[in-house]
Amino acid sequence: MVRLSFFAMAMFANLAMSVAGPINTETYRELTNGFGQTGACRGNGGGGDRVDSRYRILPTQAECETVCDDDSGCVAYAYSGNGDCVIYGSGQDGTCSLTVDTGELDRYHNFNSCGECYQDGAVVEDALVKSLCGICSKETPAELTASLSVCSTVGGLWTEAAWTAGTWEDPPAGWAGDSYTHLTQYGSTNVHTISVAESYGCFDKVHEDGQATCTGSTADGSSCQTSFEDRRTSTQCPEGCTFYPRNGSHGPYCDGLASDGETSCIEGFETTDVFSEESCLAIDSQCVYVPAIAWTQPPATIHAPPADLGPGWQDVIRASVTTGDCTGRDSLPQCKGKDNLAGFEYGVCRLDTAGALNGENVNQKYCKNCINTNGDQVNLDEKACAQACLDDPSGSCIGFSHADNANCIVYGVNGEHYLRHPGDLDNQWLGYTLHDEPCIADKIPIGCTPKFNTIKMNTKFVCRHLNRDNTRWLAWGEATGSEEITVELTVTPSLSDPVGVKDFTQEMMNELRIKMASVAMVDADKDVSLEIGEGDQDGHVKVTFTIQAPSNVIIPMTAMINTILVSKSRDGALYFHSKLTTDNALQNSGELIPKAGHIAGILVKGMRHNLVDKSKELHTTKWSELSPTSACSVARNLIRIDPVDPEPVILPDELASGALRNMYNYLHL
To answer: Can you tell me the distance from the alpha carbon of 115 to that of 128, in angstroms, rounded to the nearest whole number?
Structure first.
């Protein structure tokens, strides 16, 4: 079974909702991939040809279409069944002050390129972003553009030139900008194709901007373009495809599904002779043919050299022998002439699994525009994404993958169910759960999958992990102050035999402190004290741990203990069934808890961030079998229900796999 977060479940449910065609069919045309499938808008280059855009949630497609109607710079819009409205066109993502000075909208089209590079007093036109503004002391691979990152991979010294930044102005309030951020070339300014994504529809407003056109007027004053479009007939449509005659501002076109199942109805139509230069000039000698905009696949980019994240963090995660295999990786320039790149340091975090060339995925969540507690956009740089990992309300972040100015992916235990981070109510993470849950430490949580220690090679990303012992807490900074976290175990008789305080031996108490210290990743002798006392009801025993935590880590430590012992309900009891933490500790061995005892509840009391203002506040969570008699009350006590972050929903594998695939379409990962 696959466990999906509440938001993922809602998204899955919406996948069944189809977006209707455009409201105004004379102005807008719905685009497909030429095989009848719909999705998010793209330029002529297809999936990789992102067009600058702005995004927000709007209740209806009509509202989204109206926004595009009223915006002269909108060339198309996309709308999804769950309310996503995306407006495409140059400048939709925001504007740079340098555009006003020069009039070059495309040159400064995103916040990364809002600046000018100067070398020896002259503008370096090819240095579109700061990371390209400099010179490498060594020759770099011809397939790669010389940059700080590429220079580091060949052992060169990068000398920075002068970068003068402009001022970037975000899109209107309520909208989030999405810039095409490739380092070496502009994105398309036209929409003409799609990236397939279920529940999405792309509605093109200016379709001819992606086709060959015929400009000017004939001798009698008629439009060359209109005559050019009128030469298109159903005979140019591949067999099985549907021909659509002129409608409003849209010329005739062809779409649907070809009989052979292999020919694109759109591409097959637009490559016929009626779109040629000869066809245009045959109309009138005064007509001028303009070929369709050609998309050039950009050269590979590479992430900035791994940053020094300080204590608490492991060195950058590298490719293993399995994931470093260069077989079939012709698109990776570093593989040229090599059989294996074990040790390669650029890629996306993965499990190292025998036979899995790309490794295997684990539980994670993703966001581009979210803000960390330092006030930085999480995709800004490696350190900003690292802070998002430390901010995770689950306290269980294990590591992250980061792509410069493009992506922050956080991995952990239950973190995918916390879709908002403290102080950032305007943005939401997208979480999803796969079969594998990575380990915070050895066998913690119970059932976790080890070997989360490699990468899927990808030059755009770096993968970083927190340490998996008590040095993990150093990532939150130098220890300051001391505060207490309380963990209470309620022990009841398992059957008829009673259990009492005197049944706990000194050895049991010592082992309980050691086990609690291993869960909290602290020192048992210095940081954990234990008290055994009578419970709240006759015949019950209360085991109370007091954990001394530095003030700067009490919030993530409370959250991590809650994730391990409370959020998984009865699984929390298994840690105290034996000295050795194993997946098979379903029966109480009597080593830590008297054989006649049964753990009927766990309470964790500590601190958390206030979700709204990031302030520190008291926080208590628990699960318990000791409850009122109503079925509802029992359910609420068996599984902790958080009003902000609901418990996961269980889906059958056959349904969940489709949901996850469609979420990948949405995420464009």
So the answer is: 8
Query: Above 90 in pLDDT, residue 336?
Result: no
Using CA atoms, how far apart are residues 287 and 309, in angstroms rounded to an integer? 61
Please state the rounded mean pLDDT for residues 82-90.
92
**Is 222 within 8 Å of 278 (Cβ atoms)?**
no
pTM listed for this prediction: 0.64
Taking alpha carbons only, the member of 599, 600, 565, 572 closest to residue 395 is 565
pLDDT reported for residue 9: 36
For residue 574, which phi and psi values (nearest 5 degrees)? -65, -25
Tokens of 615: 């302030």
Q: Which residue has the tokens 């699994």?
A: 353
Helices (H), 271-328: 277-281
Enumerate helices (H) and strands (E) in the chain, giving the number of each.
14, 33
Helix (H) or strand (E) segment spanning residue 449: none
What is the model's pLDDT at position 436? 82
Q: What are phi and psi of 318, to 5 degrees?
A: -120, 165
CB atoms within 10 A of CB 106: 13
Q: How confident is the model at residue 183 (pLDDT cuts 50, 70, 90)?
A: low
Identify the three-state secondary structure at position 130. helix
What single-letter amino acid sits at 594?
Answer: P
- Round to whole Å and give the CA distance between 211 and 203: 16
AA identity, residue 653? D
Per-residue model confidence as pLDDT tens digits over 502-538: 999 999 999 999 999 999 999 999 999 999 999 888 8
Chain segment 479-494, per-residue pLDDT in tens: 999 999 999 999 999 8
Q: How confident is the model at residue 103 (pLDDT cuts 50, 70, 90)?
A: low
Report the Cα–Cα distance between both ends of the chain, in Å, rounded. 23
**d(C-alpha 472, C-alpha 470), whole Å:** 5
Secondary structure of residue 21 in the 3-state scheme? coil
Alpha-carbon span 202 to 75, nearest angstrom? 11
Residue 10: predicted pLDDT? 36
Answer yes or no: is pLDDT of 2 > 50. no
Long-range contacts, 653-661 (Cβ 8 Å, 24+): 653/1, 653/2, 655/12, 656/1, 656/2, 656/4, 656/12, 657/2, 658/15, 659/4, 659/8, 659/11, 659/12, 659/15, 660/2, 660/432, 660/434
